[in-house]
Design goal:
The complex is a heterodimer of chains A (123) and B (181). Chain A is an alpha+beta fold. Chain A has five helices and four strands. In chain A, α3 crosses α4 (97-109). The longest helix of chain B is centred in the C-terminal third of the chain and has 18 residues, at 161-178. In chain B, β1 and β2 form a beta hairpin. Helix content of chain B is 38%, strand content 26%. The radius of gyration of chain B is 16 Å and the shape is globular. Chain B has helices spanning 4-17, 49-55, 71-81, 115-125, 146-153, 161-178, and strands at 22-30, 35-42, 85-91, 95-103, 130-137, 140-145. The chains are: A alpha+beta (123), B alpha+beta (181). Chains A and B meet through α1, α2, α3 and β2 of A and α1, α4, α5 and α6 of B. The structure holds adenosine-5'-triphosphate and magnesium ion. Adenosine-5'-triphosphate (ATP) sits between chains B (10, 14-15, 18, 42, 44-47, 55, 61-63, 69-73, 96) and A (36-37, 70).
Chain lengths: 123, 181
């Protein structure tokens, strides 16, 4: 038997017990994935899925993952932008799921920019 | 696009950008009728008749970063190549309905691809939108209604990673029950 929506109640009770909801605070890191036609065609969906998966698994409650339309450089898609408070924006280009996981562990966890995947390395 | 599920994601993103609060998505894969169809209805800002007439022409878009909008013309072209068709209806202030269909047995029929992955992507990006996803094959039908999910969740957002993982499994399991063997 496949899952039914009613089973969500149990998950809700478990989550309410844990109280580890993501919070919007000043020290939160924003990760934005470009999801216009060009990004989607170039493979943005698995990139986003990998980031969400890693952020969830590692329970990085200070990271907010969101989507945007065209970032403007279609030939460099899939593009991921990382905004850390008080720092310059990092733009990662030609991403795939594997690079996305590396970006999470290096940049979001250890705060080390993965230079070779950034737009400055590509240009 | 390599898969119809990527067109789904792309066209539904238009609804998101149009400020829709409710987006209904139907994907039907019907063997007996030899048709695959994708229909998306939203209650977003809509388009004027003049603008609507120009959107399937790839030399128009309202975005400023790049002149050419690709999503709708691409879907139309893909559907027509597979002996199908495309229609779009819209009214300013009311919403938009976009539909594409394909002849299932046509050699140019794209694979459906990861439909569940596209739905999870949409929900992750816009947890506040009421998505209603309906999936049908000759073997049966199921629906994922985000308003219903929200009712079960109380105050918890459908965008929480744990919930997205659960919804992904829900879609995969229900999909498996109606897929062609
Ligand atoms: N559901 C909708 N509601 C309102 N406006 C829409 C809708 N779908 C499309 N449009 C309008 O039509 C335009 C063209 O859409 P299309 O998907 O073809 O290209 P685009 O979204 O502009 O760019 P991209 O190539 O990234 O998809 C959009 O920019 C938008 O102004
Ligand atoms: Mg579009």
């Amino acid at each position: 038997m496949a899952k039914s929506i009613a089973e969500l109640k149990a998950i809700r009770e478990k989550m309410q017990g844990q109280m580890n909801m993501r919070v919007d605070s000043d020290d939160s890191i924003r990760v934005v994935v470009g999801m216009a036609t060009c990004g989607i065609a170039a493979g943005a969906r698995p990139v986003l899925a990998a980031i969400v998966d890693e952020v969830g698994k590692r329970n990085l409650t200070n990271v907010k993952v969101s989507q945007t339309g065209c970032i403007g450089v279609c030939r460099l898609e899939p593009i991921v932008e990382v905004f850390e408070p008080g720092k310059e924006k990092t733009t990662y280009v030609h991403m795939d799921a594997e690079k996305a996981r590396k970006m999470v562990s290096e940049h979001l966890v250890n705060h080390r920019v993965v230079e070779e995947m950034t737009i400055s390395a590509a240009e | 696009m390599k898969e119809l599920s990527l067109n789904l994601l792309d066209i539904a993103e238009n609804s998101v950008r149009a400020g829709a609060t409710r987006v209904e998505i139907d994907v039907f894969d019907l063997k007996k009728e030899d048709v695959v169809s994708l229909e998306i209805r939203d209650n977003g800002c809509g388009m004027s008749p003049e603008f609507l007439a120009s959107v399937t022409d790839p030399f128009t878009t309202t975005r400023t970063t790049r002149r050419v909008g690709l999503g709708l013309p691409l879907l139309k072209m893909e559907a027509e190549q597979a002996e199908g068709g495309f229609e779009i209806e819209s009214e300013v202030g009311k919403g938009t309905r976009t539909k594409a269909w394909f002849k299932r047995s046509n050699i140019d029929m794209p694979p459906l691809g990861d439909l569940s992955g596209s739905m999870i992507t949409l929900i992750q990006g816009s947890p506040e939108i009421d998505f209603i996803y309906r999936r049908r094959t000759d073997a049966g039908e199921f629906t994922l209604s985000i308003p219903e999910v929200r009712e079960e969740l109380g105050g918890i957002s459908v965008g929480e990673p744990e919930i997205l993982v659960w919804l992904g499994e829900f879609l995969a399991e229900n999909e498996a029950e109606i897929e062609y063997k």
